[in-house]
Amino acid sequence: MPLDRKVVVRTALDLLDSEGLEGLTLRKIAAALQVKAPALYWHFQNKQQLLDEMATAMARDATSSAELTGPWHEQLRTMAVGLRRMLLSRRDGARLFGGTYMTDSAPLVAGEPLLRSLTDAGADLRTAVAVNRTISCYAIGHVLEEQGVVRPSGARDHRFDPDARRARLDGEQAPLTAAASDYLFGDFDRSFTDGLELIIAGFAARLAAGQPTSRPNGSDDGH
User: Fold this and answer.
1) pTM of the entire predicted model
2) What are phi and psi of 58, to 5 degrees?
3) CA–CA separation, 121 vs 125, rounded Å?
4) What residue segments make up the domains of the chain, in order of their start?
5) pLDDT tier, 223 (very low <50, low <70, confident <90, very high otherwise)
6) Which one has a higher pLDDT value, 81 or 212?
7) Strand, coil or helix: what is 89?
């Protein structure tokens, strides 16, 4: 029976949870499938192609179960929370997902209602894309930090304990920096929501002011 491409991807995702991105090798995937490593090259030319397919499978699963409805700000929240949840669902999920290529158009098309909602609210397409991309990058970056602090077992790296961070700092010299420890490494759900709401508020203010997307000097060259 020919090796199924989807089975390879699912096996690789399961191994990602146990081995991490650094430990995920084609040899280990082949061993889990009880085949020789060269058999995988019938489906994927290299490891990067497999990583792209893994990220696409994650996105496909997430977008197929998420429905973007309601006003634009609710859709942005739904998208952001869903993306973060998806990335956290896999070990090193943010590292895997960031910068990968979507091999299936379905996850891309799933974002059409959000862009429509943003443009219907008065944004031009460039602004709609900008806020969408900003929130996506924010979610990936936030999860990257989270997964660097919280180990796969669920235990936190003690080096990032808020109390330990405060102890390293001179409370008299940098009282605000010391007090910020709880906000940085305390409640990740809260910190994610805080940042998300700032982005949404900034976009709402731009809509209310009717500001253009181009730079103040009028340049629109994309650089």
Assistant:
1) 0.88
2) -60, -45
3) 11
4) 67-209
5) very low
6) 81
7) coil
